[in-house]
Amino acid sequence: MFNIRSKPIKYLILFILLSPLVKLMAQEIQLPSQPLEGQKLFLSKGCVKCHSIFGEGGKVGADLGRTQANKNTMDIVAAMWNHSWEMNRAMLRGQDVPQLSPQEMGSILSFLYYLKYFDEPGSPSEGKKVFSEKGCIECHQVGGIGGKSGPALDTLSIYASPVFLAQKMWNHGRRMVRKIKQKGLKVPRFKDNEMADLLAYLQSVSPVKPSLPRYSFPGSPQRGERIIKEKGCLKCHRVNGTGGKIGPNLSEKRFHEGVTKIAGRMWNHAPKMWKKMEELGIQPPRFQGNEMADVIAYLYFLGFKSIPGELAQGEKLFHEKGCIQCHAIDGETDSKKVGPNLARTKGLNDIISISAAMWNHNIKMREEMKKQNIPFPRFSGEDLSNLLRYIRSLREQENGDE
Length: 402
Description:
- By secondary structure, the protein is mainly alpha-helical.
- It contains 19 helices and 8 strands.
- Helix 4 (73-82) runs parallel beside helix 17 (351-360), helix 8 runs parallel beside helix 12 (259-268) and helix 15 (311-320) packs across helix 19 (381-399).
- Mean pLDDT is 80; it is low at 1-27.
């Protein structure tokens, strides 16, 4: 049986124990209660026979861990459509083309999007450099090496996720920064995978070797949204048009990164945030349990969305790409068209149901295009956003859909 053991997926398998059902209302995309349900479908539907995930799996198609991870939902759907004909031709040589329900399509899309939630595991050798070059060794000991003005870090080896390290650094950060400045040292800043490297080093040299490492849950976007509100983050930060404007807008793409990078960003900007909170009389929040992971998951999943499309562009594409040749719109008689009336067909209210329908019928659609000499249309994620906006407008006019 196929077993995804590559580095980022290894983290997913270890960390993902349970994730609640989440509906991101603005995106109209419902995540499964267990993100790895998409992995099960990836296996059972035969995707793994052609595609690999970070090097593990078939070699006929692209490595989806490297080509699809970090793309938004529309981009992934567009890639599936653009390569659907080639995929179906390959499948028809030896296996049935799998049909996907909207729920199954949603699970696979969320799985592919989720691949970069956890970054690459850290490197102990690189972490040793971080421990020394960032000045951690001046105050902290690990394995008997280092200063004593701060607590020893040996017990951090029981944690398997850099989220715990980030949470402890945040909670004790103000005191740490004061001591660092008293010593005349530079407050460390972290980039790329350095925080994960640091944890890997601590784990490798610490004499504390737990029999059962403590893993973090991957984080719940739903809980993270609630925590951001409860901790007062929206007094300074803006998310999806709501909140303050003192700090950066957290809806920006640069905050839709994996755990380690977002954790590093939070630490790097912490001194500035603490100073501003002090000026405003706001008590800096503390995080407990899995709260830091929940907040990071919320920021990450802000990127799992449909970009609001442009109606005029969607209508233009509907005609230019040849959709109008097969699908009825407005008051046209359905019998004049070979495809369904997209304004009246049930169950086509969001990108997940539409993408599932496009996938399930793409062979028939391609055959009809050949009969009518219509070029096979290729779409970008932005194209699909615009088309969805147009199709939704047709449905609203016809049925009063929301």
